[in-house]
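Troubleshooting log. The previous run stalled partway through. Resubmitting the same two chains, unchanged.
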Amino acid sequence: MMSERNLNIAVLAMFIGIPAWAYFSDEPFTITLMTRAAIFALAAVGLNLALGVGGLVSLGHAAFFGLGGYVMGILAYHAQTYTPLAEWPFLVEGTKSMPVIWLASLLLSAGLAWVIGSLSLRTTGVYFIMITLAFAQMMFFFSISWSAYGGEDGLSIYVRNNFPGLNTLDPIQFFAICFVILLAALFLSARLAKSPFGLALNAARQSPQRVETVGLNTQRLKLVAFVISGAITGLAGALFADLNRFVSPTMFSWQLSGEIMVFIIIGGVGRLFGPVVGALVFVALEHFLGGLSEFWHIYLGLLLLLIVLFGKGGLIGLICGREKVHD
Amino acid sequence: MSLVLVFEQVLNGLQFGIMLFLMAAGLTLIFGVMGLINLAHGSLYMVGAFAAAAVAGATGSFVLALLAALAAAAMAGAIVELAVIRRLYDRDHLDQVLATFALILIFSEGTRWIFGSFPLFLDIPTYLRGPVTLPGGIQYPLYRIALIVIGLIVAAGLGLMIARTRIGIQIRAGENDREMIAALGVDISKLYTLVFALGAALAGFAGALVGAIQSVQVGMGEPVLILAFVVIVVGGIGSIKGALVGSLLVGLTDTLGGVFLPRILNAFMDVSSAANIGSSIASMAIYILMGAVLIWRPTGLFGARL
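Second attempt completed without errors. Output:
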């Protein structure tokens, strides 16, 4: 048995070692794969806040992932066509600057998460799952029918957006940006989990009546968690769109919501590094099994079924044993 | 905007709604009795459609195709229940979602493996082809009328079965208190398999019927599944009556919204922007309906009050 801490360090070492190896042996595709894994991990770190700590089974996080993607797509589209995004009530120009795009996608995803969250949190359990799924589907159909930004065909961005002082078109530099953001999100979620807010949220999942009795508002705790969660996943969406230089309605698809959840399960629910391990394994499976067989989703399905039915605690649970109840 | 058009679109909405009902009824029964959320219900819809298309292609008989759809979906449902679903009843919803998501992956890729990626086509039989003249001189496709009639018959049959038969009593008892009916000597695990197979058969039947007016392809089930979720949220989980009212509401809202919103907006703006904005809003109409129902009544129109 390996301690969870050592495993986390090993995972981080892989995230630094593999791209470094790929950089020196001139394998840019491997760097792109690792960037993809880092972005998926970021999206799943977002969902894990709602799912693992708050117990909110959201099957609609693609809504935020896609919104982040479209924020990037729309801002960059207006910048590359030199047309203003809006002229009234005040002039809004498009932009190619990553920090501005990130800020916009964080804020807008948080706003959407607030709207979806306040409606969905009126219910619990199975209703919550269905409703979050339905709202993500609403965004999907909306993006298809909104022809101003490509509709079904999506939007292509010719050149990757820029970050002051870096050449974002260089794969290793773009990977570094994504990895640093992932680290920041991991740090934030570790801090949040130990903060009074995180402890209260954890308690609200385990025993809502007690938390209410102490005088805390469980609905508000859950809504705040859902908003932060949505914002992080939205940021991941903006990065993903930048990685592909393309956004399309598939970023809103229900499969994507399912996949983000699958990352967490493969890694381990509620574990800090669960999403990271899951995303890494998923991208590796996608790459290697996808190369072996056109029908690799069958094997993914079987693996997932085995993990759900027999392997509680995901891969981290398998390697490190059960989670300690007390720290 | 003529009355004929309104009437036609109302019929289209009814037809869409009644097919949604066949999906939603199975989902809501399965949730009501076993407490299970089944994402793979859309896969059973697809299995029905593919079985029907394959049998119709081999024999040319539409009736045989429908029977094959019922049988294949019920069989697939029973097998899945015995192999996987049964282990999920006492798990939390997250495990149920993930395991049934895994089943979707397996079903979809498995079907693609057997039938290939190209859509199959299921023809409407000659005796149901062509338009029929309704009172008032309205021409309407006969097949769609047949769908509405068949759907209503199935809905009535399901209602009767649940209200009047022994198995219906057991299903209702299972919804209220499963330990109690197990203690009374009802073989609960057999009942579960039966309910799951029944729900699967309804989904497969809907898949075959709709397959004749759309193409039969991998992934056809999930959009319908999500609409059926909206139906259940609107109608209230576990209620067949709620599923019927919810499906008709969703079917009518979606169809009428898509046709009439652009026309209504046209009164305020030019044709092309009215068409754009109208279709965008119409694509969201049923979700707005869902949001409104949630604000008004969080457990759905006919759901148990908390």
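Takeaways: Residues 70 and 183 of chain B are 32 Å apart (CA to CA). The longest strand of chain B covers residues 131-134.
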